[in-house]
Each structure stands twice: as structure tokens, then as C-alpha cells.
């Protein structure tokens, strides 16, 4: 049986671009992880970060777009950890 976390987060900042107006969603496979171990928590965090980078990417390269991308990633990472009952690794 495959376990998967599906998470959504709203952006905390407003954007002039249409891409930032939608709520990104990520899917992270956890079936092969034992989230009680530090190593697998690190793997989980890497998967969340990779998925967040893909979900939050915008075509714009200005400073405002970069700020929105980083905020979007943070807004996906925290709920992902909450969904598994842990705090984000540093």
C-alpha cells in the first residue's frame, strides 16, 4: 500500500503574476520511509524541498518573484512536517 502526503499552501504575499495567484500543491511519497528515524526524516525533508521548488517556480527572475518563490516553499514545508507530526529539520 502506497502512502502519499498531498499538501497545499497559500502564498503569504500577493503577486503581480498569475502564477503566484494559484495555490501550489505537492505530493511526497513516504511509503519507503520510517519517519521515526533521523535519516528518513532528512530524506523526507529533501523530498519536500524538491517538490516545493518545482511547485513554486515562476518564470520571472526579478527580486520580487524570488521572494515569492521562497515564501511559497516555506509555506509548503511547514505544513508537510505538521502532517507527519514533526517539526521541520534545520
Task: Give a quick rundown of the structure.
This protein has 2 helices and 2 strands. It is an alpha+beta fold.
Q: Would you write up a description of this structure?
A:
This protein is an alpha+beta fold and 90 residues long. Helix content is 44%, strand content 11%. The protein is built from 2 helices and 2 strands, in the order E-E-H-H. It has a two-stranded antiparallel ribbon with strand order 1-2. Helix 1 (38-56) packs antiparallel against helix 2. The longest helix has 21 residues, at 63-83. It is elongated, with a radius of gyration of 14 Å. The protein starts with a strand and ends in a 7-residue tail after the last helix. The relative contact order is 0.23.
How much beta, percentage-wise? Answer: 5-15%
Could you give the order of the helices and strands?
Answer: EEHH
Give the overall average pLDDT.
Answer: 79
Gyration radius from CA atoms, angstroms: 14 Å
Amino acid at each position: 500500500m502506497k502512502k502519499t502526503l498531498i499538501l497545499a499552501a497559500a502564498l503569504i504575499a500577493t503577486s503581480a503574476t498569475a502564477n503566484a495567484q494559484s495555490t501550489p500543491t505537492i505530493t511526497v511519497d513516504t511509503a519507503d520511509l520510517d519517519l521515526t528515524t533521523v535519516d528518513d526524516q532528512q530524506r523526507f525533508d529533501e523530498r519536500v524541498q524538491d517538490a516545493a521548488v518545482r511547485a513554486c517556480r515562476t518564470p520571472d527572475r526579478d527580486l520580487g518573484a524570488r521572494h515569492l518563490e521562497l515564501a511559497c516553499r516555506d509555506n509548503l514545508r511547514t505544513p508537510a512536517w505538521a502532517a507527519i507530526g514533526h517539526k521541520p529539520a534545520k
